[in-house]
Amino acid sequence: MSESLNYYERLDSLKSLKTPTLEQLFVYLGDQDPSVIVTALKMIEPKPTPFLKDPLFELSTHVNPSIRCCVLSIAPYTLQQQSSIELIQKALKDDNSDVRLTALTSVQVLLDQVTMEQFFSLATAVIDMMNDPEWRVRSSVQLMLPQIVSYFGLELSERVVLVLKCGMKDASLEVRKQTVQSMADIVEMFGVEWGKSYITPLIILFYTHPNYKIRQSTLAAMVEVGYVMGKDAFTTSFLPMILNLAFDVVPNVRLTVLQQLRVLISKKFLDIAIVNSRVAPCVETLAKDTDEDVVAMANNLKPLLNTE
Fold this sequence. Notes:
mainly alpha; Leucine-rich Repeat Variant; 17 helices; elongated
């Protein structure tokens, strides 16, 4: 592309190409402006093309992270499988968090296509990022966990619990939310007995955690996992812990207890006898709480209680 053309002219010239050939796009991949390069990359047809390996590998180290992200987005569709894996695994260690996040998205695309050996290599690289400094990356790792364990099954039980444990004590609320959802998904995948053996002890560990925010997230985990494990398992294992947290020293935790009880009652998950004998007295106690917000929420919950 002639450097005599200014940026807008070069970009307009590129966009005017209706069905560009690789030869035409290669010219723009060497442009001095990142926007032109990104636009050209997005116009590449999504099919394996051996000729793209060298230019894409070169652009994967470009100083501009937007270009590196775009390369990663098209790599699973335009490179041979092994080349794509090689490029993506390198990007998982990139200094830029957006690049690492895009690399994880590309891993999700590849996981259903690769061999067992390649899958294990990618899965290990993903799990190793559970302590990444960027919360969006850590959340993405938790999001991908059910997909990873669905391939290996119970063989990864110990490693799975380690990743979930890491996510449950994360400083980011969004990471903890995703961990709770993934935890429930994995219990649904492996069954109630697995949940009792591996997840219930994890919840017991965190429901008395010194950080009240983690206790709040653990309350959410009890309810989400409880739905999957069933009414009997929930009533036996989790309900006593929820009711114990109704007396937590932190008002926000007591509020969360009421919020979760409201969800349980609204969905008619609990037997009426349990609501009357165990939940209703707890709500009555919280209606006399020293915190006005707790009192207000408890009083709002009362009409939902079936005490007949």
